Amino acid sequence: MNAPRIPIINLYSNLIVPIQGAIGDIAMQQLTDDVTSRIEKEGARGLVIDVSGVALMDSFITRNIRDLALTARLMGVATIVSGLQPAVAITLVEMGLEIHGLDTTLNLERALEQLARTHEEEAAALGGEIHARG
Amino acid sequence: MLAAEPTDDVIEALKAYFSVPIARALVLSTVRRAKLDGAPLEGRAMAQVVTALEHALPMYIADASRRSECVVRLQKLVSKSASDSPEPAPRSAKVAPAPNPSIASTVIQVSTADDVANACEVGRDIARRVGFPNVMQTKIATAIAELARNILLYAISGELRIAAVDSPRKGVEVGASDEGPGIADLELVMTGNYRSRTGMGMGLRGAKRLMDTFEIDTSPTGTNVLTRKFLT
């Protein structure tokens, strides 16, 4: 299977991964390798996995996306899954798939807003600490 | 054990037209629907099952001459069974209308990840043509994905059969058959306390929750799943 690579976009130090359509095992493995190496190389502060182009998420795809998000978080990168389609969200709930510890937002815009807030809070906390010490 | 089932003659007759797991799933579900489980398949019972099978055949065999050939074979079983059995086997004069031929029934071989994606597309398309709204189409396609993925993970290869049904109600029927090693502890898998290495241990249970009916028959020689979702 010669699956096209999923693009990874760097925007304001956040990596954005737009997933479109069906995603196979090989593409998913490739994506995990690509995302983690780009995080390391580019010093990304946030990761958004946008699934607004995915019309169907079964337990396999859901697990893979969750694992990618948890892996990135383990590397210290705030991670958000954005844009779950209504039918997909309804289906996941009905199946009883619980996605523990995963931040989600309505769309990509909200995800970037939330990441910006997180980064600001981190910076403020860090600044306050330096201020308190000095 | 399946080898000792009285349905063997019927499966044997269907073998020329279907793979063995599909034939087995079709016969077993027909017997179950006719509420003849466990009863010896002879005389009136055989006639009943064959009549039900005949009505179902247009969905499975598109070619008309192959279909009538298959019907002849099944009829032979009925007359053989009637002569063997003291009970007369009445032939039903009433013939049910054939299912809507414009809506396809499809058999999909599943042995690669691409086949899984393809099966989902086909299933969504059939669900749409039956008249299911978008959310229901997604649920059906997702259930198909789970069944197909299960075949791939545990049996390496198998078959999916997706069909529009008219009775007892309008809807979609999805059958999955494989000749894999079967599910050792079905109860554990279905209760959701099981987490597999490869999935979330949710595949079959997820499919069951998404569909209206769910029947599973598993043994060390294979697994058959038959599941339906109704429009209303």
Highest CATH level, the class of chain A: Alpha Beta
Tell me what the CATH architecture of the largest domain in chain B is: 2-Layer Sandwich
**Beta fraction of the residues of chain A?**
15-25%
Q: CATH superfamily membership of the largest domain in chain B, which one?
A: Histidine kinase-like ATPase, C-terminal domain
- Structural category of chain B is alpha+beta
Uncertain residue segments of chain B: 87-99
Query: Largest sheet of chain A, order of strands side by side?
Result: 1-2-3-4-5
Unreliable stretches of chain A, pLDDT < 50, 5 or more residues? none
Strand order of the largest sheet of chain B: 1-2-3-5-4
Considering the chains and any ligands shown, give keywords for the structure.
heterodimer, A: 134 residues, alpha/beta, Transcription Regulator spoIIAA, 5-stranded mixed sheet, B: alpha+beta, 5-stranded antiparallel sheet, 8 helices, globular
Can you put this structure into words, describing what you see?
The complex is a heterodimer of chains A (134) and B (232). Chain A has 134 residues and is an alpha/beta fold. Chain A has four helices and five strands. In chain A, helix 1 packs parallel to helix 2. In chain A, strands 1-2-3-4-5 form a five-stranded mixed β-sheet, sandwiched between helices. Chain A has a single domain, classed as STAS domain (Transcription Regulator spoIIAA, 2-Layer Sandwich), CATH 3.30.750.24. Helices cover 52% and strands 19% of the residues of chain A. In chain A, strand 1 and strand 2 form a beta hairpin. Chain B has 232 residues and is α+β, with helices and mostly antiparallel strands. Chain B has two domains: 83 residues; 126 residues, 2-Layer Sandwich (Heat Shock Protein 90), CATH 3.30.565. Chain B has a five-stranded antiparallel β-sheet with strand order 1-2-3-5-4, with helices on both faces. In chain B, helix 1 runs antiparallel to helix 4 and helix 5 packs antiparallel against helix 6. The radius of gyration of chain B is 18 Å and the shape is globular. About 6% of the residues of chain B have low confidence. Chains A and B meet through helix 2 and helix 3 of A and helix 5, helix 6 and helix 8 of B.
